[in-house]
Design goal:
By secondary structure, the protein is of the alpha/beta class. The protein folds into 4 domains: about 90 residues, Glutaredoxin (3-Layer(aba) Sandwich), CATH 3.40.30; about 100 residues, Translation factors (Elongation Factor Tu (Ef-tu), domain 3, Beta Barrel); about 110 residues, Nucleotide-binding domain of ferredoxin-NADP reductase (FNR) module (Rossmann fold, 3-Layer(aba) Sandwich); about 90 residues, Beta-grasp domain (Ubiquitin-like (UB roll), Roll). The chain has a 6-stranded antiparallel beta sheet with strand order 8-7-10-5-6-9, covered by helices on one side.
Length: about 425
Amino acid sequence: MHYRRHIFCCVNERESSHPRGCCSVRGSVELRAYMKRRAKEMGLDDIRVNNAGCLERCELGPAMVVYPEGIWYHYENTKDIDEILESHIVQGNPVERLLLNDGQKFLEPSPPERVYLVVSDITHLGDGCLTIEFRHSNGKELPKFSAGAQLGLLFDRNRISRNFSLINKSVETNRYLVGVKDDGDDSVTAWIVSNIKVGDEFKAHLPNNTIGLNESAVQHTLFGESSGVLPLLSMCHRLLDINADFKVHYLHNPLGNNFFLKELKEICGRRLTIHSSDLFSANSVAFSNFHNGSTANHHLYLCGSANFMTEALAKTSDWPAEAVHTQYMSAPKLKDPTALNFSITLARRTKTLRVSETQSVFDVLHEAGLLNVEYACEDGLCGACKVKVLSGEIEHRDFVLTPAEKNQQNTMIACVSRAAEESSRLILDI
């Protein structure tokens, strides 16, 4: 058979501890098999998919070259392969976002996607609370978000970002509505409450969700405290839209500001239970609702301050880990904050860097220009600086990754997590 095109795929079965690209760890073998199968399903009988070793570009991970054009691609998943086959092979249009330059041996940090917003409305609720409505600066539809998501607004010449919970319905694509509370702990939030006005323009990261609503669950229980009420608002909107069975608990402090409680009452009605307590130790009464209360396909959502989350998770330890979803509004203090020296090897660049006791992995990567992420929470709360790990034992100190994700030991939050042992090494997919 005469083949019109040959596709040579980088498939290198190196050991996973090798400091270079280690294609097999990144899934080259499985992706090449998928490409062959998918090409056959599409009836592309005039191409041949070949195994070609590392092609001297092992640092890139999965890579291919298409002949006779001599066009190189980097790809990471089946979606990328489908696009290459459909756009390039079938239609003859190269996929520009995946193209590699001549001689390129490693990937540059990808710039984060951003959306350009303008403030269209502000509602002051008193006591430093307000809602801010954003529209697309060009009048376009906004990128979709999921219930419980946060919007990352950029400040200080786009070097600092702050996340704010989206509180409107997730089906709305014409606006983003965020809730803001000045609690005196953050200068950026204080500036917003005092200075923001209609017409102000912002750049923002696309909405990101760290709590996640499992819509397939049979029953949902949501528990919020303090600013933890904010992500619950959009989640309750969504649960109503899909006619789900859910209950909401709100920890009410009669001595403090119970902001957004009125809005929660309007959405939830009789589904809402308010627990009144002026002493945090009395929360055990509220949490008694959950002890030994886990049932099949019943999911629990917890959101609040560090102290609240610590007690809530202790009281619900009998629940299956995969059924408990969390969002911390502040970071707990570590019992043992000891920081150790260790090294990080950047697999795609065959380069090793040291991380001292006073540095984070984020600091080292950012100073080297190898992590294209603005400073965000720096407390392990938002997940903006998540990086892939090819080898090494991680000491997870974040409050974003699920227990299952932490057990897999292939992802870390660079601003807080570290190597588990002094002088050990983490191999990062960078």
